[in-house]
Structures are given as C-alpha cells and as structure tokens.
Description:
Elements: E1 5-10, H1 17-22, H2 33-41, E2 55-70, E3 77-92, E4 99-107, E5 111-119, E6 127-138, H3 143-149, E7 152-168, E8 171-188, H4 199-206, E9 212-216, E10 219-222, H5 230-247, H6 249-257, E11 266-268, H7 278-293, E12 299-303, H8 307-333, H9 348-364, H10 370-376, H11 380-383, H12 399-406, H13 415-423, H14 431-436, H15 443-463, E13 472-474, E14 488-493
Parallel strand pairs: 1-2, 12-13
Antiparallel strand pairs: 2-3, 3-4, 4-5, 5-6, 6-7, 7-8, 8-9, 8-10, 11-14, 12-14
Helix pairs in contact: 5-6, 9-13
Amino acid sequence: MDNAYARLVIETNKTINLLNALRLTNTNAPATNETKVATATRPAGETNSELPQISIGAIVITNTALSFSDRSIQPNVNLSIRDVNGRVADLSTKQLQHADLNLGAKIDGVGPAAITGTLNPFSGTETNEFKVSVKDMDLTPASPYAGKFAGYGIAEGKLNLDLAYQLVGKKLTSKNVITLDQFNFGDKVASPDATHLPVRLAVAILKDREGKIVLDVPIEGSLNDPQFRIGKVVTRAVVNILEKVATSPFSLLGAVFGGGGAELGYQEFAVGSADLTPVDRQKLEALAKGLYERPALNLEITGGVDLDGDREGLQRAALDQEIRTRVWMKLRKDQQATNTVDQLVLAPDERGRWIKTIYNEALAAGKITPELIAANTNLAAYAATIPTTTTRSSVPEKGATRLMNAARDTSDKSAAAVVYQTKLVPPPDPTEAVLLATYPVTDADLNALAARRAKAVQDYLIQSGKVTAARLFLKQGESETLRKDGSRVYLQFR
C-alpha cells in the first residue's frame, strides 16, 4: 500500500463519513431464508478453524496519510497523520501463529507515533500484545475540546503516550501512562458543557518541577462487557482526580509526593498562643516539601480563633506576664535577676501566691464587681457575696510605686489590704477565674492573635527555603471577617 490517503470526518450531526460509506446494505432489511438457515445451523462457539486458511507474508504500508476533521465542535478540529510507514508480517489464520506489527507515523508532521506488537486477529483464545507510543504531540490543535469540556482553551503543551495492551481471549489488561509536558490552560471559554470542577488547580497540583503531569491509568476489563469502554474508564479516572482536587486537595497533594493528607490543610495552636509546636513544624515541613515539588501552587493563609478558648488564653497569658514582670522586678531590686522576664519559670505555689496578691489589689481597686463576675465568669452566686460599696485607700498608687507595692507578700498590712481581707475572703477555686475577667480581651485582640498565627505559618514556610514569599498570601487582616471556628490557621490553594 503506497501513497494511500484516507479522510475521516465527524459531521455536524456526529455521523462518521467512513462508517456511512461502509454501509453498503440496509441493516434493517429482513433476513433472507438463507440467512436464517445459516444462522440457525451455525454451531455456538465458532472458531477460526471454520475460516479458510489464509497466510500473508507481509502487508507493507508506505507514504500513507490520514486526515481527521471534527465538524461537530466549534471551532473545528483538524489533525493530519502523515508518513505512515510499516508492515504487518506473517499474518495467518493458523491458531498458534502471530503476526508482527510495526507501524510508524507523524502527527501533524511533528509528534512521532509508533505501534508495535504481535497479534493473531483471527483467534479467540491467543494472546495479543501491542504497544502504542506517541511523542511530543502538540496539544494546541485540540484546544476546542478543552474549551468545550474544561472551560479553558489550551495555551501550550505536548502529549506523550506510552500504552501497553494485552488481550487474552476477551480479557484486556493495559497500562496507560499519559504525560502532559509544559501544559497550560489558556483563556476561559464560555461553554455550557464545561465542568465546574477546578481544572486549573488540578493542573497546578499535578504539575511537577519539570513542568510535567504524569497520569498512570491501568485498565482491566472484558470486551464481552457491553459497559466496558477504554475511553470511559480513562475519562472516569480523570474526573476522579478533579473531584479529589475539589473536595480534598491536600490529600491529593500528599498522595502525589507521599507527605500527608487532609491534615496538611490546617495548623493547630494552643489557646491564646501563636507559637508553633513540634507537631506543627512537622506538618509544615511536609507542606513545604509539597509546595516545593509543585511550583505552580500558591497558598492562602487565614488565621482563626476560638472565641471562648482563645479569649481565656489571652487573659491567662496577660496574667502570667504580669506575674513574671513583678517577680523579675523584685529580683532586680534585690540584685538577683539573672534572666529576662520571659525566661522566668514560676513554681505552682509561687504563682498561686501572686494570684491572691493581684486578686486583692484588683478587689481594692474596684476592678472586681458583681457585674463583672456575672458577665464573664458565670459565678453569679459568688458575685452576690461581693459588697456593692467598698472602702479603699484614699491615696491612689501610680507607676513604679504601685508596681513595687504589689510585689509585697499577701501579709501586707496596708489599710486597703486589711479592709478587704476582713470584709471578703476570696474563695480558693474561682479566684483565678474571677481575676482573669479583669483582663479585657477585645475583638481587635483576637484578630491580632489570628494574624500572628497566620504570620507564624508564613514565616516558617519561607524560612524552610522551599517556598518563596511571592507564593504565600495572608488573608487575615483588620478589615477581614474573623474566622471563629477554632484555634487554627487555615490553608487553601490558589
């Protein structure tokens, strides 16, 4: 076969010209008596032994071409397969004989394609094996398909196929490795058939540092199954990936590079804290690795708070900071201060003594009121025991004087202390809870905590050396709505 040419056209009504040309008879015409007899008398399980014995030394194909046009889509898709050369050798109806298949071609004159294998097309039991290889096929001619079904055209990209098929009887086993090289979507296309799944995000997650997307889609099935179609199986595999991107992108990223799952999508923090724990750092290391391997991915970082837990956490942090400051100032006065304020570690009993001291001061200063307790601590019964009028020292303490006096032991016999210790003795259990309520925490404070958490995650990823600052976007700010669903930082790909 030399210099042959074929033209395959899908018409606007989706009929195929070659199939139309092959319909030489009316398939709806009633069967003749001879046909009925032949059908009735033909035994079930007819094999190639009933075929005439055929033996062909070789079928040689040279300089053959095929053009393909799809007019059912706008704009039309046109492809050409040129320079088809090869041969099928030793084609025979003999049961145990296999023909050697070796064909090569060029797709649009660029991408080389090859089909090789051994087969016996006349046997229903023999093993047939063949491989299909396509290299560097330009994908831009297929842009109309992408626009119709993905909602975006194709700006650039090459397709590589490595397909291996084995057919034993009617059982098909295949390996399909599909590689997209430097693939990028183009402009958005308004198409009613386009998927709503995040195709651009899927490309960013799947594309490695070399700009390649590799999909390994093994397929098994029976040709006797009317529901089995290779194209449907491959399409389903691609859709599954897109659905995974939409529902759990971090799980997909973790599956790709082996670095975790959905838990990569958030970072937990202790209440009232913006400090990363060792567990947080391990998760961020895994995330940094994933982002490094997927350079097309950007990350949005949003801080969040637990309204109740983080409010109390900030109050407790403020109280602890005040205690450490007082202890440090006392130590400095005694010339015994060797650490900074933040480095001080207090024993539980020492902390308890200071809580009572600060509590008495707050009580004397009128900071602790029934209304405060009822509104902030739910200790209404205790609030009822606090007198509505108090006697306090006529000389207010200010600045360093108040700070130094506050450092005294609870045995302080100042007028104010004596008055309040005789009128109201703080109960042992709710003392700290009541005292915490005297440290106000506003929404601005909570917003600031959320922002510090987001910044801590951003800084850690940058310091890892695997992610640039340009790829990390902080969403939490004063103008943003505060996320109130946990002491977390929430992450999202973009």
